[in-house]
Amino acid sequence: MFAVDNPNFSAVLPGPCNAKCSFCTWRASHEEPNSGGFLGAFAMANLLLPKSFRTLSITGGEPTLSPALAGINTLAGDNRWERVVLTTNGAYLLARLRDGSLSNVTDINLSRHAVSQAENNDVFGCAMLAKPGIKSAVNEARSRNITVGFNTVVTDPSSLDISGVNEWVEFAIGLGVTRIAF
Question: What's the predicted TM-score (pTM) here?
């Protein structure tokens, strides 16, 4: 029998998303979600999951818009989790870092789909966090010992020749981002 050495548990937070990505299946209502019921279910899963689950991934819609984020963050602080990873498009990232909603997060995966702001906005279907905002959020995260990486969906594989990869690396380094996943 094969087993994963460090299985990952994903908490898909209820709530909306500000982006309109053509490749995404998230179509959550923009109504207020029942975060209390969600948090109760997560608390039960937190108790019942085998101890081999040491990485918690927080995702959504857009988790920084979810009213359940602060509650999940609190529940994630029980020292059970070695890593708490937030995947976000950055909508309210800086605000959530500053208001304590991410105090137990260890890593942030920031969705970014192009180096060019115009191309990135086009993929997301709306205006997204620009370089100054990314830089501020990365600096705030790093001041809290949280690493930040880019996660990208490559919409044009031909753009990932060596010069395209180098462009991503230079872009990430310039913003203080420590990793890129394509």
Answer: 0.90
Residue 71 DSSP code = H
Provide the strand spans (E) within the chain: 8-12, 55-59, 83-88, 107-111, 147-151, 179-181
| 21-34 tens-digit pLDDT | 877 777 655 455 56
Helices (H), 30-161: 35-48, 69-75, 93-98, 117-124, 131-143
- Token pair, residue 117, equals 């702001």
As given in the structure block, the two tokens for residue 168 are 């991503």
Q: Which of 89, 68, 53 is nearest to 14 (CA)?
A: 68
CA distance 73 to 30: 22
Residue located via tokens 């020749």:
161
Check residue 32 and report its DSSP letter: P
- With both helix axes pointing from N to C terminus, report the angle between 162-175 and 131-143 in degrees, rounded to the nearest 10: 60
Q: Which residues of the chain have pLDDT under 70?
A: 1-4, 27-35
The tokens of 14 are what? Answer: 């209820």
Structure tokens at 101: 């909603």
